[in-house]
Amino acid sequence: MKRRDFLKSGAAGLTAAGLSPWLAGCSGPAGRHDFPAAESIASLGGQLDPVSCEMLYLASLAPSGHNTQPWQVRIERPDRWFLELAPQRQLSVVDPARREALLSAGAFLENLADAGRHHGRPVELAGADSENGLAILFVGSSEARPANLEAIANRRTLRGPFAPRRIRRADVAEFLRDTRDTEYFPPDSRESGWLDEATVEALAAQCRRLPVMEELSEWIHWSDDAARQHRKGLTPAAMGINGFTGWWARHFLESEDVLSQSFAEATIRQTKEEIGSSGGWIVVSGAGDSSEGLLSAGRQCERLWLKARALDVAIHPMSQALEETPWRTEVGTRLGLDAPPQFLLRVGYAAQYPPPVSLRLPLSAFVTISSGSDV
Ligand SMILES: Cc1cc2nc3c(=O)[nH]c(=O)nc-3n(C[C@H](O)[C@H](O)[C@H](O)COP(=O)(O)O)c2cc1C
Questions:
Q1: Beta strands 281-285 and 341-349: pairing type?
Q2: Best substitution site from 58, 64, 327 to test ligand 1's pocket, by max atoms within 8 Å of Cβ?
Q3: pLDDT at residue 17 is higher than 60
C-alpha cells in the first residue's frame, strides 16, 4: 500500500485489532514531557532571575495558530519588557495581516500576567511600541495574589471526539462571567449549524489552495526527531493522531504528503467527523483589528480557555471560516455579532482530557536581554 493511500484507508481497523498496546511499548511520540520547564529555563544560562524565567516559561504555554509561537520578548530593564512578534514565526499565507499572531501574543500576555500576579510581579501594559507595533510592559512589584498556574500548565487544544450535547448551563454561565463579546451557540442552534457548514466548506477551499497546504506542510513535523529538533509547529500527537496511525505517521509520512489529494480528503473527512460530534461553539469577538484590540481578544480567549480547563470542557479553535472569503466577511452577520469575531471555538465534553503534548521553544529562542540591562 502506498503511504498516501494509507491515510485514505485509515488505520482504525488495525488499532481495533489490538495493536495499540504493543505500540505503546515502542518509544513514545515527542511531547511536552521531553522538555521540562527547568530545561527551557536553563537555556538562558542564568542571565535572568528565576521568577521572571518561570513567568516567561508559563507564558510560552499559550496556544498559537499552527503552534508557531509567534511571540518574542526583549528585556530592556527588570521592570521594562517589550512584547514583539517574531518575524520568522509567522503564517504569511493564512494570516497575512498577523491577526492570529496578535491573538496568540495576547494569550501569551494573559499567561504572563497571571504568573506575574502569582509571584508578586504584576505586568501592566505601559503603552504601544510604535516600532514593532506591539506592547511595552511594565513589570512591577506588589503583594502576591494566587493564580491558577496549574490550569496554564494543563491547558491544551483537544480535537475530540466530544459528547454531542449542550454545555451545561452552569458551565456556560461560568464561561461568560466577566467576559465581554463572548457568545455560546448550542449544537442544535441555527448559528452552530451555519458554523459547522462554513468550517467544512472553508477547509475544503483551503485544501484546494496550494500555498495554504505548502505552508501547513512546513509547520508539521511528522518524525519524532524533527519534532524534537524544531520544538514548534504541529506533531501527529498534538493533532490527535495516536495509536497505530500515529506511529505510522511518525515513521513514514513526509512534508510532501501534506500536498497529496488523499491528505486533503482525509483532513476533510476527519473535520466532518469532529464537527458532527460536538457541544456547540463559543465565539470570542474583539474590538476591531488594531494590535491593542487583538491582544485584548487573545487575552480574553485565554482566560476563557483556562476556565474551560478547570471545568473539563475541551476547546478546539477552528479558524478556517475566519481565514477564507466569503465566509470571513459573513461570519459576523450570520451570527448576529456586534463586534468582529476573532476566535471560533468548537467546544464539548471529552471522554478524556489528557495532558498537553504540543512542544514549546526554550526560553533562549524567544527571550533576549539587552546588554547592560542589569537583570
Ligand atoms: C489564533 C489561533 C488559531 C488557531 N486555529 C486553529 C485551527 O484552525 N485548527 C486547529 O486545529 N487548531 C487551531 N489552533 C490551536 C493551535 O493549533 C494550538 O494552540 C497549538 O497547536 C498549540 O497546542 P496547544 O493549544 O495544545 O498548546 C489555533 C490557536 C490559536 C491561538
A1: antiparallel
A2: 64
A3: no
Residue nearest to atom 3 of ligand 1 (CA): 65
Strands (E) across 41-146 are located at 71-77, 80-85, 123-129, 134-139
Structural domains in the chain, CATH included, are 32-154+357-369 (3.40.109.10), 157-349 (3.40.109.10)
* Pairing mode, strands 367-369 and 71-77: parallel
From CA 200, how far away is CA 320, in angstroms rounded? 8
The residue written with cell numbers 490550569 in the block is 151
Q: How far is the CA of 319 from the centre of ligand 1 (A)?
A: 8
Query: What strands lie across the sheet with 341-349, from one edge to the other?
Result: 182-185, 281-285, 341-349, 313-317
Mean pLDDT taken over the chain: 91
Residue 199: CB within 6 Å of ligand 1? Answer: no
Comparing CA positions, the residue from 94, 75, 98, 96 lying closest to residue 85 is 98
Q: Determine the pLDDT at residue 1.
A: 37
Q: In the chain, pLDDT over 90 holds for what percent of residues?
A: 82
> Would the CB of 242 count as within 6 Å of ligand 1?
no
Q: Is 206 in the pocket of ligand 1 (CB under 6 A)?
A: no
Confidence of residue 175 (pLDDT cuts 50, 70, 90): confident
Cα 10 to Cα 47: distance, rounded to the nearest angstrom: 49
Backbone dihedral angles phi then psi of residue 269, each to the nearest 5 degrees: -60, -45
- Burial track 162-179 (b if 16+ CB lie within 10 A, e otherwise): bbeebbeeebbebbeeee
Q: Residue 286 in contact with residue 300, Cβ under 8 Å?
A: yes
> Does the pLDDT of residue 13 top 60, yes or no?
no
Instruction: Give the residue carrying C-alpha cell 526583549.
Output: 74
**Atom 1 (ligand 1): residue with closest C-alpha?**
100
Q: Best substitution site from 66, 85, 152 to test ligand 1's pocket, by max atoms within 8 Å of Cβ?
A: 66
Asked if the model's pLDDT at residue 44 lies above 80, the reply is yes
Assign 3-state DSSP to the chain and report helix, strand, coil percentages, each to 5.
50, 15, 35
Nearest atom (ligand 1) to Cα of 159? 11
Name the pTM for this structure: 0.93
- Cβ contact 58:65 at 8 Å: no
